[in-house]
Amino acid sequence: MTNIITQLLQEKSYILADGATGTNLFSMGLQTGDSPEFWNADHPERVTAHYKSFINAGSDLVLTNTFGGNRFRLQLHGGENRVDELNEKAAGLLRSAADQADRKVLVAGDIGPTGEIFQPAGTLDIETATDAFAQQAQALANGGADLIWIETLSSIEEARAAFAGARTTDLPVVFTMSIDTNGRTMMGVTAEDIVNLAAEMLPDLTGCGSNCGVGAAEVVAAMVNMKQSCSKFDQEPVFVAKANCGIPEWVDGEIVYNGTPDLMARYAQLAYDSGARIIGGCCGTTPAHITAMRDALDNHQPGPVPQVQQIIADLGEVSVGAQSQLLGDMTVAGGSVSGTSPRRSRRTKRTARPE
Asked: Please, what CATH class does the domain formed by 4-305 belong to?
């Protein structure tokens, strides 16, 4: 089967993904605590308008409104028996919108985390989770998805389960993890760990990367760390960067992300220079931000892999943990505020130069 992602990347140097789903839907009337996935059946015209807003802004790849579409998340809203219905509807709406575009737009069937803790720390076993992910992935495929997009994961166990479930569809698979805790996911996974996990899944995996997190600077740092870590493998996946739009702030009773279109445009350029080939935005990213990112990337002259000083100057602070990893120190102590000072390794000296 032809891989639609690698095929598109043969035609262009990058794929621009979309921005935030929740931000758009909240502006259309979604209330806190409601299930966005129910809107696929209850308000299909609003979901379609959301999809079209990013297509019109320049996105080459748009995610379905199914982040919480697995049985565990839907159970919180009494919708555990609507997995097939809601995922198929979401993919079908996006398929129709994409097919009406004047260019190729990929339909990414979005799968988010279960919200459960995996064994041995928690109660969810990999087999049960894999079955749930497979159900959602198959429904997305039935609705017309071009690929399965797994995002915002924190643990290796959940990534393995989600990948196994997604592979039941024979569609290309991408997974991203949220590096939001001092250079690691909340379950301790580093950028290098993500690359090592991806190496286990190749060649069946198409792409991996980082999304969400604590801002654009941290995602770019993760991209640099991933690119450095893959030097030991003969094959590498397509790298994905999908950062939050700056940092969330509480303003007049609501959460507002402080990232401007200019900041996200610069983030897109640095993500590209870091090795990412699928680039988008996560929480807080609007169509206006995506338009700015499209213009920035279309007019970008590729530069060297950014150093940490440039990332901080252009995008904001980078965590101590991520900085230590950039310098080759992968220990927990080295990345802690009270730990050892980062030591520059021979690996960093070799791989941090322009590629």
From this structure: alpha beta
